[in-house]
Amino acid sequence: MQTRRIYLIGPRASGKTTVGKALADTLGWRFTDTDEMVVRGAGCAVGDIVERGGWKAFRDMESAALRAVSGEHEVVIATGGGMVLREENRDLMRATGLVVLLTASAEALAARLQADPQHAQRPSLTGKSIEEEVADVLRERAPYYAAAAHLIEDAARPVDEIVASVMRELENGENP
């Protein structure tokens, strides 16, 4: 098993943090979340960052967090849903670790977002309803997720099954 970093990508509410923590526990690795790194570094919530500096400022901070964590070893990294929008981020993740895409239907993601009390703290990406926004964002980002991923997992599956699948992929050792 040569991979020293696992990047979890996918839309908001796809389970990146939940799967990431379980995977890190299984491997005995550290877990980190790039959104949390950005919030800690900025000293304020994502919504405040976007309100003050716009999405570009947030994406710049997100890319900086990715660069910082990409040099660490034995770490599972949950990335923000938009991390894949920049080609440099997709390239960096693919070159330095195993990239796992967690997918789910727009309906499932919208239901998870509506049930999450943290949702109110995240700014809308489009100003539309949750259902419309999720469907639009998935459509827009699908090619970027596909371009970045080494492995695609259905986020509707139980966490332990996803972890087992990723572990099998690591055993094959064909990824960075």
UniProtKB/TrEMBL annotation:
Subunit structure: Monomer.
The protein's name in its UniProt record: Shikimate kinase
UniProt xrefs under PANTHER family: SHIKIMATE KINASE (PTHR21087), SHIKIMATE KINASE 2 (PTHR21087:SF21)
Origin: domain of life: Bacteria
Residues that, per the record, bind Mg(2+): T17
One Pfam family from the record: SKI
CDD domains given in the database record: SK
